Amino acid sequence: MKTADFYYDLPEELIAQTPAEPRDSSAMLVMDRKTGSLEHKHFYDIIDYLHEGDCLILNDSRVLPARIFGEKKETGANVEFLLLRHIGNKRWETLARPGKKAKPGTRFSFGGGLMSCTVAEVTEEGNRIVDFECDGSFYETLDKLGQMPLPPYIHEKLKDKERYQTVYSRELGSAAAPTAGLHFTEELLEKIKQKGVRIGFVTLHVGLGTFRPVKVDDVTKHHMHSEHYELPQKTADLINETKKNGGRVISVGTTSCRTLETVAKKEGCIRASEGWTDIFIYPGFRFEVLDGLITNFHLPESTLIMLVSAFAGYDNVMNAYKTAVEKKYRFFSFGDAMMII
After folding, report:
1. How many CB atoms within 10 Å of residue 64?
2. Three-state DSSP string of 263-288
3. Is the preceding peptide bond at 151 cis, omega within 30 degrees of 0?
4. CATH superfamily to which 73-145 belongs
């Protein structure tokens, strides 16, 4: 397949700039993956599509306030760092803007000296490996200094940092939110549990590589960046029990999906597992675990729309996106949801 096959026209005004209030009031397009038929609902209607004995798998990764603004110690020149990946201790892989000011050995200061860093090296991709220094907890200091790393297509300033976090986020480490989960409220999750639907958690720390544009014409030539995942024993047991009893495993988001399918491929079954994944799911992929998927509407020609097409069928998905544009659904991170069952 060609990357251009996954293009669709999207008017700019349909790119959501702010999250829906309340969270579960977003529109939701429900697709039957066998027939491609569509229903127009709200996210709080999800309860009607879940059955007793099903399980929902959620990604509990929490977004770091990963954008920090500092000054070059020698000259006072402004620089922005975006934390991408924790390497160890206070060493991070980062994106620096402007990069030419961040040469190896250069020192920077943040928040009037609350934190400083030294550039250790430059990677092949042009990212900077940086050693940070601060008194006390690195994450507490980062929380004081950092801003949420909102995607570049969101131009509105986020009033409340927590609106770019899921209500169940707990494991710090993502450079972007697992956005399918932004629609859940505590109350909705409680209603889902009361219906007899069980909830399990995985952790996949979302890297910006997930959103990298596909720059090759041939889809199969694209290479994904690696992201760290963990599937705990409790979740593995839940999934296996659900399957054994004839229930459905429904993934909340492409990150949860990629975690489950990675483990199934690597281990040959679902069991407790931790590691790095660069799995790339596109049409032709054979799913081992998923029975349903809750996701947002993704960028044209992105790896994420390719994953959704692999699960629900290329023609079904492209038709659904065309319908969503016509019906003026809201797109991308703060946009509306799609449930595929």
Report:
1. 24
2. HHHHHCCCCCEEEEECCCCCCCCCCC
3. no
4. QueA-like (2.40.10.240)
Do 3-63+160-340 and 73-145 come out as alike in CATH topology? no
275-315 per-position pLDDT tens digit: 999 999 999 999 999 999 999 999 999 999 999 999 999 99
Give every CB contact of residue 12 below 8 A, 6+ residues apart in sequence. Answer: none
Q: Place domain 3-63+160-340 in its CATH homologous superfamily.
A: QueA-like (3.40.1780.10)
Put simply, whether the predicted model's pTM sits higher than 0.70 gets the answer yes
Q: So where are the chain's domains?
A: 3-63+160-340, 73-145
Is residue 259 within 8 A of residue 277, CB to CB? The reply is yes
* CA 313 – CA 25 distance, rounded (Å): 27
SS3 336: coil
CA 275/CA 226 separation, integer angstroms: 10
Calculate ∠ Cα 281-286-288, nearest 5°: 105
Count CB-CB contacts under 10 A for residue 116: 16
Residues 6+ apart with CB under 8 A from 31: 37, 38, 312, 316, 320, 338, 339, 340, 341
Q: Six-digit token pair at 269?
A: 């079954």
